[in-house]
Amino acid sequence: AVAECLSFGKWSTLYKELAHGKSAIASMFGLSAPVLESWLHSLNNLRNACAHHGRIWNRSLPFNPRSHPQYPAHFSHPSRFYSRAAVIRIMTTSIDGNAFFSDGLRYLFHSHPKINPAQMGFVQDRDRDPLWV
Questions:
Q1: I want to staple 67 with a disulfide (CB 3.0 to 4.6 A). Which of 18, 36, 75, 88 is the partner?
Q2: pLDDT digit string (tens) for 16-75?
């Protein structure tokens, strides 16, 4: 019941303050505890920017997520939205393998052709990248 009442920010803080169990939780995503902590913190910041109608498409965002050892190229510009999108894709893939997030991004880019994905850190051949397929 408590899980339904906590905000994403509280979950991020709760994870950060855990004395024991961080590694067990992080391993469920194939990550180390410091990497997961940085991801949660950066996603919390992204969530807040979105919730308050902040600009994210061509902005440098604070609280950079640490690089994933399997996908280091996706974190070459950690202050851009793309690195957070990669975090979301990696985490959702590890939870259920659903392509909903990557399909949704493709739809948004197709629906808004004036928005340049490169300004968010996306590369041109992202549709052939194994992370996004």
A1: 75
A2: 988 899 999 999 999 999 999 999 999 999 999 999 988 887 889 999 999 998 999 999
Backbone angles phi and psi of 10, in degrees to 5: -70, -40
C-alpha–C-alpha distance, residues 102 and 10, integer Å = 26
C-alpha–C-alpha distance, residues 60 and 112, integer Å: 21
pLDDT digits (tens, 9 = 90+) for 59-87: 899 999 999 989 999 999 999 999 999 99
60 Ramachandran zone, left/alpha/beta (phi>0; psi -120 to 50)? beta
How deeply is 9 buried, as exposed, middle or buried, from its count of CB atoms within 10 A (0-12, 13-18, 19+)?
A: middle
Q: For the chain, give the number of residues.
A: 133
- Residue 8's nearest CA partner among 91, 72, 76 is 91
